[in-house]
Amino acid sequence: MAAHGTLPTELDVRLVTPKGVVAHEHTDALTAPGELGEFELLPGHVPMLTALKPGVLVIGDKDRARYAVSAGYLRVDPSNAIEVLVEQAVLGGDVNVETARADLKAGQAELEKWGERPTDGDWKNIIHRIAWAQARIDAAGN
Questions:
Q1: Which of 49, 57, 62, 112 is most buried, most CB within 10 Å of its CB?
Q2: Residue 123 lies in a domain
Q3: Does residue 85 sit in the same domain as residue 45?
Q4: What is the pLDDT along the chain (142 residues), one digit of tens a residue?
Q5: Structural domain of residue 109, as residue ranges?
């Protein structure tokens, strides 16, 4: 924690799923897949709460760690601590790309059967599965 009157020089980031803490890093930056688009946080950011969509979460600018994350929330508190709360998260290097590609293909095939039904819960679940598969592929760098 920075002394009173000085700007913090790092972020305290916790990436958490229902299974527990996936990552706890002290870092210089964080890039997240917000519902309204990708955004970056730097030390000293104002407190906020925002929704996340499935995508790639990048912890660090200099020493980068890429994670695939599902939908969830990100909170920045006044002490410059960041909590990323998501249903699923996996380190990019741990992604099984073949499984993710198969999941993506299966989801897209299922979606084609449905047509467009934006209010149907099953349709929305397929969309989320497709987005989660794509997030894993993107985090793996493929």
A1: 57
A2: yes
A3: yes
A4: 444 556 677 899 999 999 999 999 999 999 999 999 999 999 988 999 999 999 999 998 777 899 999 999 999 998 889 999 999 999 999 999 999 999 999 999 988 887 666 667 787 888 889 999 999 999 998 6
A5: 95-139
